[in-house]
C-alpha cells in the first residue's frame, strides 16, 4: 500500500488544471514509461499502449488527469489577483484559503476574506468566485511582472496520510483514477493478453471532457473502462447516492453504460473476492463515459468509480484499498477477455 | 535562532489557548541563556526578568501572548468523526475544506458536502459550525478513540512562506510578538525589564491578568498582531491599518482606553528609531492590555501591534519590514518608558 500511496502523492503534487495539465501529464507519463511507451497527444492527454496489438478487441482505459482550479482573469490596481473558476470549484471553501499561483514563478497567496468586524452579521454569505480576490502580498508592479491573465491557481493542500489506509489531498479527483490505471498497467504489462489495451489520461474532464472526446476518437477502441471518483458516505449526503469508503469500487449502472460489461465486472469481482458496490444512475453519468460511449459509431463502455469524500474541496479523502481493488478488478477483467 | 528562522520555529509550533506547552518550551530554550530569572506562573505564563545597566525609574512589563486561536474536540460520533468547538474568535467562514492537525499530531480534514449535491441556496452560504466535523480517516468511534479524545486541541495545517518580503503563516497572532520579545531579551538593555509570555489571551486575557498581578508593574507595553483590513473590496476608511505601514499604535479598542502620554510617546519612539508607524484607525478588537491596565491599582499601558491580514484564519500575512520596524520601535519605546518618570 505504501508504494501506491507514494504514487498517488507524486501525482497529486504535480499541478494540472484543465487546459494546463502538462506537469501532471508528465508525471503520469513518467510512471507509465516504467512499463510501456507513453506519449502526449495534441490535447494534452497521455496515451500509452500495451497488450496484443491489432487484436479484435481494443480496450480503452480512461481516467482524467486534470483537476479543478482557478484561472487568473485580471490584476487590480492594488495588485490583488482576480480569478474565475476553472472547473467546478466550491466557493464555500475559498475564503481565507492558502493557494498556489503558477505564474512566472510558483507563488503562495491567500483568498481574501473580509475581516469579521466589517461583515455586519452577514457572515454566512459567500461571494461568487469572480467577485473574490487573491492576495499574493505583491505590489501592483511585482504582480504584473510575475502573474499574467490565464495563469492557473490551485487550492493548496499537501497530501497527507490519515488513519489506516485513508489519505487526503487536493485533486484526488481523479489522480486516484490515474493511479489505478498505472497500477493496472503494472499488473498486466508482462502478461499475454487477447486484446489490445490503450491507456488514456485525458485532459479537460472538469470543463467538458474534450480530452476524452478527441482521445477516444484517435484511439478508436471497441470497448472502454472509465475510472473516476464518486461520492462516499458522509453526513448530510443521501445514502442512495453513495458508495462506502473502503467498500471497494462502485460499478456503474446507467443507460449509456454497457450492461453486459456490468455483468462481467460484477462476476469478475465475485470470482476474485473483490468487494464492490453498485452505483445506479438514471440518466447520464456525468463522467467521461458519457462522451466515450458515443465516439465514432459507438464504444461499449463501463464506469468504475472510486468512493471519495468531500469532492471538489482541497481535502478530498479516499481509501487506498479502493484504488488497489479498482486496479485489480480492471486487470482481472482484461485478463479474462477472450 | 534569530530573525525569520525564529519566527518560523514559533509559528509552526502548535499551541491553542490552554495548550501552550510546545511554544513555552521553545521560548524558555531561547531565552534561558539571556534572562536573569525565569518564573512560570500557576497558569503557565512565562515571566522573564532581565537586568539592565540601570535601575529604571518606571517598572516596565512587556507582554506578548503564546496562544493562538484554534478548535477543540468535543465529541466523537459513531462514524468516528470529530465534532468540535472554537477556541477563541475564529471566523466560521474559513473552516470548511481546511486540513487540520488534532491532538498529538493526528492529521485530519474539515470536510464539506460535495458541490454536486448542494441545493442552489446552499452554494452561496458558508457552512454553519454545527454542521462541520473533522475526519481523521477513522472507520468508527472505536478506531478514532485509539488516537484522539474529547478535549484534544486542533490547529490548522498551513504554510510558512517568507518570499517577496512578506510572511504568510498560521499563528502570527501572536508568535510574532513573542519573537520580538525574545530578540529583545537577547540584547543588552539600558534598564531592568520584565518580559511576559502569556497564556490564554484568545479566551479571556487570563495569562496576562495573573502575570501582571505577579509582576506589579508601573507601565506595560503589549505586543500584538492586529487586523489589517487593507484587502480587496474594503474602503480606505475601514481598513483599520495597512500592511507595510509600520507598527500600529492603539488609542482605544473594545477593552482599553490607552494611556495618552504613552500613545504619543510611541510615535516619538518611531521617529527616534527612524521607522514607520501608524495609528490604529478603528475602535475594534482587544488584547492583553484590557487585563493589564486594570491590574492592582492600574498600569499605564500602550499597545504596539503588527498589521496582519487574515487574522484568526488558517494563514495570516505580515510584511517583514513591519516586523523589523516593530522591533526597533518597541526597543526605543521601552527605554523611553523605563527611563522616564512613572507619573509623567
TrEMBL record, chain A:
One protein family per Pfam: Peptidase_M42
Keyword annotations of the record: Aminopeptidase, Hydrolase, Metal-binding, Protease
Signal peptide from the UniProt entry: none
Domain of life: Bacteria
InterPro entries: Peptidase_M42, Peptidase_M42_aminopept, Peptidase_M42_dom2
Family: Belongs to the peptidase M42 family.
PANTHER family: AMINOPEPTIDASE, AMINOPEPTIDASE YPDE-RELATED
Name of the protein: M20/M25/M40 family metallo-hydrolase
Native organism taxonomy: Bacteria, Bacillati, Bacillota, Clostridia, Eubacteriales
From TrEMBL, chain B:
Keywords noted in UniProt: Aminopeptidase, Hydrolase, Metal-binding, Protease
Pfam families: Peptidase_M42
InterPro entries, per the entry: Peptidase_M42, Peptidase_M42_aminopept, Peptidase_M42_dom2
Protein family: Belongs to the peptidase M42 family.
Name of this protein: M42 family peptidase
Taxonomic path: Bacteria, Bacillati, Bacillota, Clostridia, Eubacteriales
Amino acid at each position: 500500500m505504501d508504494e501506491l500511496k507514494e504514487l498517488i502523492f507524486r501525482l497529486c503534487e504535480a499541478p494540472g488544471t484543465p487546459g494546463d495539465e502538462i506537469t501532471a501529464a508528465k508525471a503520469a507519463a513518467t510512471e507509465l514509461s516504467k512499463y510501456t511507451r507513453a506519449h502526449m497527444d495534441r490535447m494534452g492527454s497521455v496515451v500509452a499502449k500495451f497488450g496484443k496489438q491489432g487484436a479484435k478487441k481494443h480496450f480503452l482505459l480512461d481516467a482524467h488527469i486534470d483537476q479543478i482550479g482557478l484561472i487568473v482573469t485580471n490584476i487590480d490596481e492594488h495588485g490583488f489577483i482576480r480569478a474565475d473558476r476553472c472547473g467546478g470549484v466550491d466557493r464555500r471553501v475559498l475564503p481565507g484559503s492558502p493557494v498556489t499561483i503558477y505564474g512566472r514563478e510558483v507563488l503562495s497567496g491567500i483568498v481574501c476574506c473580509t475581516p469579521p468586524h466589517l461583515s455586519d452579521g452577514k457572515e454566512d454569505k459567500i461571494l461568487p468566485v469572480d467577485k473574490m480576490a487573491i492576495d499574493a502580498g505583491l505590489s501592483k508592479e511585482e504582480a504584473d511582472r510575475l502573474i499574467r491573465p490565464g495563469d492557473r491557481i490551485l487550492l493548496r493542500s499537501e497530501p497527507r496520510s490519515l488513519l489506516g489506509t485513508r489519505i487526503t489531498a487536493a485533486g484526488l479527483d481523479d489522480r486516484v483514477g490515474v493511479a489505478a490505471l498505472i497500477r493496472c498497467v503494472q499488473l498486466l504489462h508482462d502478461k499475454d493478453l487477447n486484446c489490445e489495451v490503450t491507456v488514456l489520461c485525458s485532459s479537460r474532464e472538469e470543463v467538458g471532457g474534450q480530452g476524452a472526446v478527441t482521445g477516444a476518437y484517435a484511439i478508436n477502441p471497441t470497448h472502454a473502462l472509465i475510472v473516476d471518483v464518486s461520492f462516499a458516505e458522509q453526513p448530510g449526503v443521501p445514502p442512495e447516492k453513495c458508495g462506502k469508503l473502503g467498500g471497494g469500487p462502485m460499478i456503474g449502472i446507467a443507460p449509456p453504460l454497457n450492461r453486459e460489461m456490468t455483468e462481467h465486472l460484477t462476476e469478475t469481482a465475485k470470482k476474485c473476492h473483490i468487494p464492490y458496490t453498485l452505483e445506479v444512475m438514471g440518466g447520464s453519468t456525468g463522467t467521461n463515459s458519457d462522451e466515450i460511449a458515443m465516439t465514432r459509431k459507438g464504444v461499449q463502455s463501463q464506469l468504475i468509480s472510486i468512493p471519495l469524500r468531500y469532492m471538489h474541496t482541497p481535502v478530498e479523502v479516499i481509501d487506498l484499498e479502493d484504488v488497489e481493488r479498482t486496479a485489480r478488478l480492471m486487470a482481472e477483467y482484461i485478463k479474462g477477455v477472450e | 535562532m534569530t530573525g525569520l528562522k525564529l519566527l518560523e520555529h514559533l509559528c509552526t509550533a502548535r499551541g491553542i489557548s490552554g495548550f501552550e506547552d510546545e511554544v513555552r518550551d521553545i521560548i524558555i530554550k531561547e531565552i534561558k541563556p539571556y534572562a536573569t530569572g525565569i518564573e512560570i506562573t500557576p497558569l503557565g505564563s512565562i515571566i522573564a526578568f532581565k537586568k539592565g545597566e540601570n535601575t529604571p525609574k518606571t517598572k516596565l512589563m512587556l507582554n506578548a501572548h503564546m496562544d493562538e486561536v484554534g478548535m477543540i474536540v468535543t465529541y466523537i460520533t459513531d462514524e468516528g468523526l470529530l465534532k468540535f468547538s472554537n477556541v477563541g474568535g475564529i471566523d466560521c467562514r474559513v473552516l470548511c475544506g481546511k486540513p487540520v492537525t488534532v491532538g498529538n499530531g493526528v492529521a485530519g480534514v474539515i470536510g464539506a458536502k460535495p458541490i454536486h449535491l448542494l441545493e442552489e441556496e446552499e452554494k452561496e452560504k458558508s457552512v454553519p459550525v454545527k454542521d462541520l466535523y473533522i475526519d481523521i480517516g477513522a472507520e468508527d468511534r472505536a478506531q478514532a478513540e485509539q488516537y484522539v479524545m474529547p478535549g484534544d486541541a486542533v490547529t490548522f495545517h498551513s504554510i510558512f512562506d517568507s518570499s517577496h518580503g512578506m510572511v504568510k503563516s498560521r499563528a502570527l497572532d501572536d508568535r510574532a510578538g513573542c519573537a520580538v520579545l525574545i530578540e529583545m531579551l537577547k540584547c543588552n538593555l539600558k534598564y531592568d525589564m520584565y518580559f511576559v509570555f502569556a497564556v490564554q489571551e484568545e479566551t479571556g486575557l487570563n495569562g496576562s491578568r495573573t502575570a501582571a498581578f505577579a509582576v506589579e508593574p508601573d507601565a506595560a507595553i503589549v505586543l500584538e498582531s492586529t487586523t489589517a483590513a487593507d484587502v480587496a473590496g474594503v474602503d480606505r476608511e475601514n481598513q483599520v491599518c495597512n500592511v507595510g505601514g509600520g507598527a500600529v499604535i492603539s488609542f482605544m479598542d473594545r477593552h482599553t482606553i490607552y494611556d495618552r502620554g504613552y500613545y504619543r510617546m510611541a510615535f516619538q519612539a518611531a521617529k527616534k528609531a527612524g521607522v514607520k508607524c501608524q495609528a490604529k484607525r478603528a475602535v475594534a478588537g482587544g488584547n492583553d492590555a484590557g487585563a493589564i491596565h486594570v491590574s492592582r491599582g492600574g498600569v499605564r499601558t500602550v499597545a504596539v501591534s503588527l498589521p496582519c491580514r487574515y487574522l484568526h484564519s488558517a494563514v495570516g500575512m505580515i510584511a517583514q519590514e513591519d516586523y523589523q520596524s516593530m522591533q526597533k520601535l518597541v526597543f526605543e519605546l521601552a527605554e523611553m518608558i523605563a527611563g522616564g518618570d512613572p507619573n509623567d
